[in-house]
Design brief:
Layout lengths: L3 E8 L5 H9 L2 E7 L6 E6 H9 L7 E6 L6 E10 L6 E8 L6 E10 L3 H6 L2 E4 L3 E6 L8 E4 L8 E3 L10 E2 L6 E6 L10 H9 L25 H4 L15
Parallel strand pairs: 1-4, 2-6, 7-10
Antiparallel strand pairs: 1-3, 2-3, 4-5, 5-6, 7-9, 8-13, 9-12, 11-13
């Protein structure tokens, strides 16, 4: 189940980029809490506290008990989003979603396989994972860190659907039951290696074979409208026409 941690915070009055830069220089991270029956509130937390909390987290969903300076009672929240700097990777902003321990919440939890599928181990198949997360509904105290599924019994052609996944008591699936979560497919056929001789033949192109002319054979010439000349029919060649004598 998701671990609940305590975190100290203070109200934040200044907003904007300039204020955020000043907080960053002091080792402070701007934050906000929203949801629940109270209005959204700007907060600030120490960067070292946020980093320590994230480093000890066992999953993506973290229940936080916020101890806000000046308030008599603590507020329970779900760590909704953590923004990191694209350059150095440090935390630059944190979002908290206020919740009640007595009201159900929806959350996405990681879906992970364990075990080696029979079709993979014995027949060289491939395990495909179609879903990476599952949306569930439960009370905050029942929120799991992740959902694990045993895939060791899967053979080639077998699949595990959402309806086959068993959840802890009090946790309800909010995903279509017919969706495929895991499957094992046959290995890809390996192509035969191409030999140097085959590469050379392909580069040379197809060989063109022509009929060999017999010795003394004369190629036929087309006459008017494609008709064959006497030579083509086997007779003597017609004499060439004489040039007309020029008049003296």
């Amino acid at each position: 189940m998701a671990k609940q941690v305590k975190l100290k915070a203070e109200p934040r009055n200044a907003t904007g980029r300039s204020a955020a830069r000043k907080l960053k220089a002091q080792g402070i991270v701007p934050a906000v809490i929203y949801g629940g029956k109270q209005k959204s509130q700007a907060l600030q937390v120490l960067e070292r506290d946020i980093s320590a909390m994230l480093s000890h987290a066992s999953g993506e969903n973290i229940l936080v008990e916020l101890e806000i300076a000046g308030e008599k009672s603590n507020r329970t929240a779900l760590l909704q989003e953590v923004q990191h700097s694209p350059v150095r990777g440090e935390v630059v902003h944190v979002d908290f979603h206020a919740i009640s321990m007595d009201e159900k919440i929806e959350a996405s939890v990681p879906l992970e396989p364990f075990g080696i599928a029979t079709g993979v181990k014995n027949f060289g198949g491939l395990l495909e994972q179609n879903l990476r997360t599952l949306t569930i509904e439960c009370l905050p105290r029942d929120l799991p860190d992740k959902v694990t599924v045993d895939v060791s019994a899967l053979n080639i052609g077998d699949a595990i659907h959402v309806r086959d996944i068993k959840l802890s008591e009090g946790v309800v699936m909010k995903v279509q039951p017919d969706l495929t979560a895991f499957s094992v497919v046959a290995p890809l056929a390996e192509e035969e290696p191409v030999t140097p001789e085959a590469e050379a033949a392909a580069a040379a192109g197809p060989e063109v074979i022509t009929a060999k002319k017999e010795e003394g054979e004369v190629a036929p010439a087309a006459g008017p409208k494609g008709a064959a000349t006497p030579a083509a029919k086997g007779g003597a060649a017609a004499p060439a026409p004489k040039e007309k004598e020029q008049k003296k």
